[in-house]
Write a structure and sequence with these properties.
EC number: 2.1.1.37
Strand content: 5-15%
Family: Belongs to the class I-like SAM-binding methyltransferase superfamily. C5-methyltransferase family.
Radius of gyration: 20 Å
Number of strands: 11
Catalytic activity: a 2'-deoxycytidine in DNA + S-adenosyl-L-methionine = a 5-methyl-2'-deoxycytidine in DNA + S-adenosyl-L-homocysteine + H(+)
Distance between the termini: 41 Å
Pfam families: DNA_methylase
Biased composition (Polar residues): 1-22
Largest sheet: 7 strands, mixed
Strand order of the largest sheet: 3-2-1-4-5-7-6
Number of helices: 11
Helix content: 25-40%
CATH architecture of the domain at 8-215 and 335-348: 3-Layer(aba) Sandwich
Length: 350
């Protein structure tokens, strides 16, 4: 099995091998998770100089796939902006210039997948913390842009006051542009809708930011990316990653429900959503091991199949137990979407 570091060649070509150094376009990644957003920006020519997330398993994944040990376990809810700035300077140097901040604060307080969601969820305060960091970095590091990603439900009527406050904070030093993008429009075999807010430093005079146009190519469907894969390995107590053939994330939970015996899932409910070979996938996963059912109806998707439906490269590897991996792949920004946004920023702003 190929256990080499995922996408390292791409990362090195875009950074170490292309002369990107102190004068390159550096970005700081907050709430980086497994690194899907970062991978897109790296592939577009940016250099990530610092990445942070509170999830230790996600940071282990991040550092497995991105050279340099840039990922740090940081709880931004309990970390002051000054402490974050100090950590950044210690890691990257006193004369650091940061072109952008990218990240998607946890969205459980807004997501439809959380039946108990409400606008006062403490996790929602991380979005406001993000805005505070953006404005502080503008003054301290010369920030030129930011990218904020979240679920479309953040724009629901009941979140109106919260979102208006967030927009107000983000607009202090930046012109902001919002658009809901569907990953299936950017060669990702998944109908995943997310809101992106791009902020452009007012002093740049860059003009109106235009989000990337949908790909002119045929929309990818489930069959295009996972139909030729071998059967995955089922989770067991003595299973280790190195013993899993093909790819170490090509594993899934053993089907226990009698519903898997027929291969036809009941209509309604979210726990047994069966994907269709001829359509883009639903958003790949949610909750604790709640990953969608394979089109054959006999089992759930493997973690690796979910990664492919998110648009990750073959060599990308997730660390942690199965629940941690499901969480990582569920929260990730599809790299092809991130790359298109990053290319638009590079062309229009920088």
């Amino acid at each position: 099995m190929d256990t080499s570091v995922g996408n390292t060649a791409t990362v090195k070509n875009k950074t170490e091998g292309s002369g990107l150094s102190s004068d390159s376009h550096k970005v700081v990644s907050l709430f980086c998770g497994a690194g899907g957003l970062d991978l897109g920006f790296i592939n577009a020519g940016f250099e990530v100089c610092f990445a942070a997330d509170y999830d230790a398993a996600a940071i282990k994944t991040y550092n497995k796939n991105h050279p340099g040990g840039l990922g740090r376990v940081v709880d931004l809810l309990d970390t002051t902006v000054d402490q974050l700035c100090k950590s950044l300077v210690e890691s990257c140097g006193e004369d650091l210039k940061v072109s952008g901040i990218i990240g998607g604060p946890p969205c459980q307080g807004f997501s439809r997948g959380n039946v108990g969601r409400h606008a006062d969820d403490p996790r929602n305060q991380l979005a406001l913390k993000y805005a505070d960091i953006v404005n502080s970095f503008y003054h301290k590091f010369g920030l030129k842009f930011f990218v904020f990603e979240n679920v479309p439900e953040i724009r629901a009527q009941k979140n109106k006051d919260f979102l208006e406050g967030l927009r107000s904070e983000l607009s202090l030093n930046f012109d902001i542009y919002e658009k809901e993008l569907n990953a299936s429009n950017y060669q990702v075999a998944q109908a995943r809708r997310r809101l992106f807010i791009v902020g452009v430093c007012k002093s740049l005079g860059a003009g109106e930011f235009v989000f990337p146009a949908p790909s002119p190519l045929k929309v990818k469907v489930v069959r295009d990316v996972i139909s030729d894969l071998p059967e995955p390995v089922y989770l067991s107590s003595n299973l280790v990653a190195e013993s899993i053939p093909y790819h170490q994330n090509h594993w899934t939970s053993r089907p226990k429900s009698k519903r898997f015996e027929t291969g036809i899932m009941p209509v309604g409910g979210r726990s047994f959503i069966q994907l269709d070979w001829t359509k883009p996938s639903r958003t790949v996963a949610y909750g604790n091991r709640e990953i969608h059912v394979h089109p054959n109806g006999k089992r759930r998707l493997s973690i690796y199949e979910a990664l492919q439906l998110q648009g990750f490269p073959f060599k990308y590897v997730l660390e942690g137990n199965m629940s941690q991996q499901v969480k990582q792949v569920s929260n990730a920004v599809p790299p092809p979407v991130a790359e298109k946004i990053a290319e638009s920023i590079m062309e229009q702003i920088l």
